[in-house]
Write a structure and sequence with these properties.
The chain is mainly α. The chain is globular. Helix content is 72%, strand content 0%. 39% of the residues are buried. The protein contains 16 helices and no strands.
């Protein structure tokens, strides 16, 4: 492994670590605030991240696709479709077991069964990201022979158009595919940008400072009429405040700029690892195991939220939100370490051999590990 490859993997893991923390933060903070009927001091943090939180996650997910996209369809389907399908079905079932009693009480056994079956075409709960990734992998494979700028232009138009069918896969595909495909198509440029900024920390910090001010203004400045009428109603459900950042076209620019900002931050943090490795390693570990956190955070998050709100020991909504975020991040990590220690439950985070359709060993190395 050469130094360049290692640096790339390092900052990508850092970026994924930042992204997964923001995702858990969104669900935790908004969940607490919904239950409490009030906002806390963490809501502005969630709102600030709203323009770029998911765009960055999808862009990072596409970065290494160019390395494997020309593999045989069997291997490609195994690694990019069956892999995520296994975890989706498994964790859909686990989540449903916890939510089924409430659904049965409200809609009966038939209603619960219908809700479970419906989750195979309408993603369930927090698992929609796992459901959507294979769709992106397949579509990108099918259009890889087309001009990348044409595909990017069409994807940008889809992101901008007010497409709200009510079907989550369709709506989120239109909203997010441009970022995933940009990660795939522009990966060399993104890596070069990260390395360039890594070598120029003062310049990177100046750029990031300017971006933070602009992003903050776009998020917290209400868009006047008639622009406010263009803002999707669901923007508020992901922490948005109805600011300029949610206006079509501006949202596309804000998402792309924010995703590149996270790349820049991650490159700088990875540079710090040379002298502060102990401080950076936890974030890098979270990124390398982001699927562990994403799959399992719902339960410790829900437990922490319920206990903190019911006991009333802490009354500040922001503090409750922060503790819920910490529980949502650390809970899956503790479960993962417990499984590694006792040896039982590996199937929760590692696909068993029977769930492979291509049994040939995957290539090893820095780039292979980042697929």
């Amino acid at each position: 492994m050469n130094t360049g490859e290692k640096a790339r993997v390092d900052w990508v893991d850092v970026a994924k670590g930042i992204c997964i923390i923001f995702v858990v933060m969104m669900h935790s903070v908004l969940g607490v605030e919904a239950e409490a009927g009030a906002r806390g001091w963490m809501h502005p943090v969630v709102a600030f991240a709203q323009p770029f939180r998911m765009p960055d996650f999808f862009m990072i997910s596409g970065l290494f696709l160019g390395i494997v996209i020309d593999r045989s369809w069997l291997r490609y389907a195994d690694r990019k479709i069956v892999h995520f399908a296994y975890f989706y079905v498994l964790w859909l079932t686990i989540q449903f077991l916890f939510k089924a009693p409430g659904i049965v009480a409200q809609s009966g056994t038939g209603g619960a069964l219908s809700a479970y079956l419906m989750a195979f075409i309408q993603p369930f709960g927090t698992l929609w990201f796992i459901y959507l990734l294979p769709v992106f992998f397949v579509v990108t494979r099918l259009v890889k022979g087309l001009n990348v700028w044409l595909v990017l232009a069409v994807a940008a138009v889809l992101e901008t158009l007010p497409i709200h069918t009510g079907w989550l896969v369709v709506d989120e595909f239109c909203s997010r595919f441009v970022y995933f495909f940009a990660g795939y198509a522009l990966a060399p440029e993104i890596f070069r940008l990260a390395e360039w900024l890594r070598q120029r920390p003062a310049t990177a910090l100046a750029i990031l400072g300017a971006w933070a001010l602009i992003n903050g203004w776009l998020v917290f400045t209400p868009a006047p009429l008639p622009f406010a009428a263009w803002i999707p109603a669901e923007a508020a459900t992901s922490g948005g405040l109805g600011g300029w950042a949610s206006v079509p076209l501006i949202s596309l620019a804000a998402g792309g700029a924010g995703a590149l900002a996270i790349v820049s931050v991650s490159a700088l943090i990875a540079r710090l690892a040379l002298s502060l490795e102990a401080a950076v390693n936890p974030l890098r570990w979270l990124g390398a195991h982001s699927i562990v956190v994403y799959l399992a955070f719902f339960l410790p998050m829900a437990i922490a939220r319920t206990i903190l709100l019911k006991t009333g020991i802490i009354t500040d909504i922001g503090t409750i939100s922060l503790l819920t975020v910490i529980s949502g991040v650390l809970g899956p990590v503790m479960l993962y370490w417990l499984i590694q220690w006792c040896g039982y439950g590996q199937f929760l985070f590692r696909r068993p051999q029977w769930a492979y359709i291509d049994r040939a060993p995957a290539p090893r190395g820095a780039l292979a590990s980042a697929e």
